[in-house]
Amino acid sequence: MDFDEKTKLADIINTYPWLPEAVAKKDKRLEIINTPVVKALIKRATLADASKRSGYPLDEIIRELQKLIDEHEGRA
Fold first, then answer.
1. What pTM does this model have?
2. Which domain holds residue 14?
3. How many structural domains does the chain have?
4. In the beta sheet, which residues pair with residue 46?
């Protein structure tokens, strides 16, 4: 899956359902991703929205997502 600012978080989670838990383990500040409120908001949110709300640069989010996916799939 290719990521850019328009990639929907729901699409990422549908493709990689294990990813929210992996993200939360990576950075304790991101444990919020597993709360019911955030899960509801994710349906409409994009990576650009996640970057804006979290304060993490978009390119860093994309790089970290790809790293987690590569590690999970044994490509790292």
1. 0.84
2. 9-72
3. 1
4. 8
